[in-house]
């Protein structure tokens, strides 16, 4: 049955049995992240999930509402609500993102704690730091003298070079022309830089690299930075969740431009404990992270559009993400939600301040 009204007022709605809803959510997440999965079945599942979750509430919203704040539970945390179909102009179905900005928070308790922290946080003086295109492989052509690709770190550990991440970083820097931007590419995209106190100077931190998900031991989830120095000597490249907890950030936004960086271990009352949660805990107001393995090129295209919205149009992150995702949805080649819906915005909203 419906529970009591939410804190601060609101109207509760009764949902169907938890088991069936959780199974539907898991199926939707699995099919969204697999472009080879049947799309007609996916659309049917998306429509059913929208009917169960959104239909009872959308008609009761203020007609002028622009943003939805989603506090999901269980397997629903794996679902990008932005991709759920709703009635658009003329009644034709459109993704929810066409009608609303969608923000996600792990839990009401986390949201309240973030707002308490934001009230006392100093504004970061610099605009943007980007760490991208790390060097993982002894056979990488950026190493003087080269190496033997067949014995490469990437061959053993699965960390191939992300060919589009360097172009992603360049496009982001171009979108932020005239701002205080630090680019750390290749060998400079180091774990020790990600841990350095100087990064707390930046309002936006962007990490374009591989992500490692460990749901059994979330403290071992990691971002992977350069694992070799300019002389080809091994260096520590794994920024683990336990490292992230030790950061003291002033950032408005952290972007985790890698695979499955929004996921983690489910914990009652806290949400998914993983990298995105860790950066919120470390002090960032918002984190943009992904729900499934993302394509390198499509991610670069989405990020370029997102940062144009932030810096050239002065949009809030929620509005900038919405505009970028709608633009991808409107293109025939990237219309499938696999290409644009993986990235979700977690945390409280803010104004980019120009």
At the first level of CATH, what is the class of the largest domain?
Alpha Beta
How would a crystallographer describe the biggest sheet? 6 strands, mixed
Counted up, domains total: 2
Radius of gyration: 20 Å
Secondary-structure arrangement, i.e. CATH architecture of the largest domain: 3-Layer(aba) Sandwich
Q: Kindly report how far apart the N and C termini lie.
A: 46 Å
Major sheet: arrangement of strands: 6-5-7-11-14-15
How would you sum up this structure, described in words?
The protein has 354 residues and is α/β, with parallel strands linked by helices. The protein has 2 domains: 18-96, no CATH class; 109-347, Rossmann fold, CATH 3.40.50. Helix content is 33%, strand content 18%. It contains 13 helices and 15 strands. It has helices at 18-32, 39-53, 55-58, 96-99, 108-120, 153-157, 165-175, 191-195, 241-244, 275-281, 296-312, 317-329, 337-340; strands spanning 67-70, 85-87, 93-95, 101-104, 126-132, 181-185, 202-208, 210-212, 222-224, 238-240, 253-257, 264-267, 271-274, 286-290, 343-347. The strands form 5 sheets. The chain has a 6-stranded mixed β-sheet, with helices on both faces. A 3-stranded antiparallel β-sheet has the order 8-9-10. It has a two-stranded parallel ribbon with strand order 1-4. A hairpin with a 3-residue loop joins strand 12 and strand 13. It is globular. The N and C termini lie far apart (46 Å). Mean pLDDT is 89; it is low at 146-156.
């Amino acid at each position: 049955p419906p529970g009591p009204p939410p804190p601060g007022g609101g109207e509760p709605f009764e949902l169907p049995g938890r088991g069936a809803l959780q199974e539907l959510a898991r199926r939707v997440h699995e099919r969204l992240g697999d472009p080879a999965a049947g799309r007609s079945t996916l659309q049917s599942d998306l429509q059913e999930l929208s009917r169960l979750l959104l239909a009872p509430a959308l008609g009761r919203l203020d007609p002028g509402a622009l943003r939805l704040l989603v506090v999901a539970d269980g397997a629903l945390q794996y679902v990008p609500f932005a991709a759920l179909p709703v009635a658009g102009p003329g009644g034709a179905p459109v993704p929810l993102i066409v009608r609303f900005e969608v923000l996600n928070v792990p839990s009401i308790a986390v949201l309240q704690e973030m707002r308490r922290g934001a009230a006392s946080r100093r504004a970061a003086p610099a605009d943007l730091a980007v760490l991208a295109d790390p060097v993982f492989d002894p056979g990488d052509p950026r190493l003087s003298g080269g190496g033997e690709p067949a014995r490469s770190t990437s061959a053993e550990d699965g960390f191939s070079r992300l060919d589009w991440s360097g172009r992603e970083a360049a496009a982001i820097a171009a979108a932020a022309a005239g701002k205080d931007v630090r680019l750390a590419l290749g060998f400079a995209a180091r774990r020790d830089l990600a841990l350095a106190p100087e990064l707390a100077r930046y309002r936006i931190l962007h990490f374009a690299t591989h992500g490692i998900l460990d749901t059994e031991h979330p403290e071992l989830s990691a971002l992977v930075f350069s694992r070799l120095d300019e002389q080809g000597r091994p260096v520590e490249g794994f920024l683990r969740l336990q490292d992230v907890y030790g950061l003291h950030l002033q950032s408005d936004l952290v972007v985790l431009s890698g695979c499955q960086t929004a996921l983690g271990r489910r914990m009652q009352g806290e949400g998914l404990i993983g990298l995105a949660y860790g950066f919120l805990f470390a002090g960032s107001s918002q984190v943009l992270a992904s729900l499934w393995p993302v394509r390198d090129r499509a991610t670069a295209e989405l990020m370029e559009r997102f940062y144009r919205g932030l810096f050239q149009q002065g949009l809030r992150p929620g509005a900038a993400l919405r505009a970028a995702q709608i633009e991808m949805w409107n293109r025939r080649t990237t219309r499938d939600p696999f290409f644009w819906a993986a990235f979700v915005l977690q945390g409280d909203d803010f104004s980019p301040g120009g």
